[in-house]
Amino acid sequence: MRHHRCDFIRPVSCVYCSCSRSLWCCDYFYFFRIASLTETYFKLETIIRWLENHQLVCFYKSTFGIECPGCGTQRAFIFLLRGEFLESFFTYPPLLFFLALILFLVLHLIFKFRNGGTYLMYLFLFTALVVMINFIYRLINHG
User: Given this model, what pLDDT does residue 11 score?
Assistant: First the structure.
C-alpha cells in the first residue's frame, strides 16, 4: 500500500491511484502545486521586469539636483521582490519599516489589537525617523 502525503483533503476516491483517501493524493496533487508555484514565479518575474522598465523619475532630484527622502524606494522594492533582502535594505533602509507599518496597520484593522493605535503611532514615528536619518546620511555622504 502506498503512503499518502495529503490526509487533509476531503475523503473521496483518488484520481491517480483509486484509493479512498482523497481526491488529489499522490503525485498529481504535487505536480499541480509545483506547476502553480512555477506559474506564480513567472508572473512575478513579469511584474519585476515591468517595474524595472517603468521606474518613475524623481521630480525632486531632477529639479533640485539632490535626492529626496524617498529616492531608492522603487529599486529597493524591486530587490525585495527578487528576494535580495540585504541589497534592498542597503538601497533604501526605511522600506522594510514602511512595509512593517502597513502590515501592522492591516492586521490592526482586521483584529483590533489592544493599544494597536498607540503601537501604530510609535511605529510611524520610528519609520519617519529612519527616513530622515537615511536622507541626512545620503546628503552628507553622496551629496
Answer: 46
